[in-house]
Each structure stands twice: as C-alpha cells, then as structure tokens.
Amino acid sequence: xxxxxxxxxxxxxxxxxxxxxxxxxxxxxAETPAPGPTFVVEASLASIVVPKxxxxxxxxxxxxxxxxxxxxxxxxxxxxxxxxxxxSLLRMVRPVFxxxxxxxxxxxxxxxxxxxGALRDEEVLEETLQALDLGAPHxxxxxxxxxTRADRESELRAEVIRLLSSGALEAPRAELRALLILPLRxxxxxxxxxxxxxxxxxxxxxxxxxxxxxxxxxxxMHDLRIACKRLRYAVEALGPVLPPELRAWVHVAATFQxxxxxxxxxxVALETVRDxxxxxxxxxAVVTEALSKKRAHHAEHYLAEVGFAVVGGEVAxxxxxxxxxxxxxxxRRRAPRKSPGPKT
Length: 344
Fold this sequence. Notes:
- By secondary structure, the protein is mainly alpha-helical.
- The chain has two domains: 43-182, CHAD domain (Alpha solenoid), CATH 1.40.20.10; 191-307, no CATH class.
- The protein has eleven helices and two strands; from the N terminus they run H-H-H-H-H-H-H-H-H-H-H-E-E.
- It has helices at residues 45-68, 75-92, 94-97, 99-130, 136-165, 170-181, 192-210, 218-238, 244-247, 249-274, 281-305; strands at 309-311, 314-316.
- Strands 1-2 form a two-stranded antiparallel ribbon.
- Strand 1 (309-311) and strand 2 (314-316) form a beta hairpin.
C-alpha cells in the first residue's frame, strides 16, 4: 500500500527549503533526544592504582635525600610512610600486576623498612621520654641512659644513611616503575568499583573485629593500629571509585591511627625502660609511673573515640549505650615473640 499523500491525510508539508536555491537553504534543526537512564561507567583498576603508586613513588624519591642529608626531623617518618603506603597497595593488587614481581618488590622494600624501623623507634623513644614531667633529680639520673640511647640512635642513623646511599631502594623503585608502564596480561585487570568496595569493606570489618580488644591489651591495640593503617591506605588509594559512605572511613581510620599511635609509643617506651638494666630501681619506678600516667591519658582518648566515657577513673558506656564497658586495667606487657614477622 502506497503512503498517503500529505494533503490527503490533512498534513501540510513544512519543508522550508522548497522552491529555494541551494545557497539559501536552511539546515534542518536536529531534535534533542529525550534523556535516558544514567549508567555507571566501569573503570579499570589499573587506571586508578597506577597514578597513585606513581605519586607515592615520587614521595619516596623526595624523602630519600632528606634522610641521607638529615634535613629535618620528619624525614625518616615520611620515608617509612611512603614505603608502607606502596607496600600496602601492592599487597592489595598482587593478582593484577603479578604475584612474583610484586612479592619481590615488596620484599626488597621491606629490608629498608626494617632498618628504618629501629631508627624511628629510637627517635620516638627520645621524644616520648623528653615529654615526661620528671623532677630535676630524676631527669639527672636518667641522663646517662639517654646518652647511651642517643649513641645507639646515631649508629642506626649512620647505618640507614649507608643503606640508602648504596642505592638499596633504587632497584625496587625502578622495577616498580617498569611494572607500571608495561601492559597488563589479558584478563588480569579488574573492574575498579567492585574491587575497591570489596577491599575497603574487608579492611573495615577487620578494624571492627579488633576494636573489641581491651585497651590494656598491648598486642591487641598494636594489631588494631595496623588494621587502621591498612584501612586508611586502602581508602586513600581507591577513593576515586568509592561511594561517599566508604570514603568517609579515611577520617575515622586516621583518627584511630593517631590515638593508637600514641598508645603504641608509650607501650614501647614502657617495655624499653623496664628492660633497661642500666637504670636504678628508683629511677625505673619513677619513669615507669610517669609513662603509665601518660598512657592512661591516651587510653581515655581512645575509649572516648570508640564511644565510652571515663568518669572518675572508671570506664562507662554512654547513657544510650547498653554494651558492656571494658574494665580499666594497667597495660599488659606483650609476650615476647619467637620470630617477629615483617612489619607492614
């Protein structure tokens, strides 16, 4: 059946170009399509991870000469933060970039992290002890031992400088740069949104599980601090593809990490002072008491962050809470480990 003539159907042709020369023809106006549904565009995990690793590699490169030339007091800390961030993110994406290459890079970086760890412990120990409110006689009695610790710190610093000056981090940095440039094997890359959500939720659940530890449990608080670091680094690395409710966890993790870091510093100082045979019993008792009071202050801060109140030295849940509050106890010493595992 032939189409109906325009006039026969009651329609009038609206062709504005009819009868006009081509030079005067009016271009047809395209109709605006109706808005359709909005789709989330899938993102490659490598497209998110590679820029972040390159940024953290740049931070590491900036920190190395600062440590070698002893330019500032935060150089060792910043170097260690860069190493931890890189190693933590590589741990998450091992299946994407290859377990063999990633494992080798992480192991080489860990050797430097271990060497700088002992130096950083000495730096923090000195800062922690200097901040104590000790009387002049006890400060004088502590001075010879502090000089001994300062000599140890100088030896460790010289060792770290020799290590970095010899290029200990050059090979893993170069290998990682190359790994980030090379194309991935087919099928190894992952969809970033789903991967990021799974990784952060797993890290979040680990933090929640460890938050039940007693504040007096030194090892428990240490494990929680490490879990908070991993959660923070995961959100920092994968934030561009995370929903807002998961990105917000970076602030929670950073707060817990800071508070627990103060607890850890005082736990390490307490253990070091207790095991120092050079100190007299009287000096050791005074310093231990001062450290314990400072630790109790940071423990109260931690308990307040997790929702408990401290009134008159007793721990109690807020009025609207029904959960059982943890008892107030002096910190328990961490049992010595047979073979300490690698730091993260």
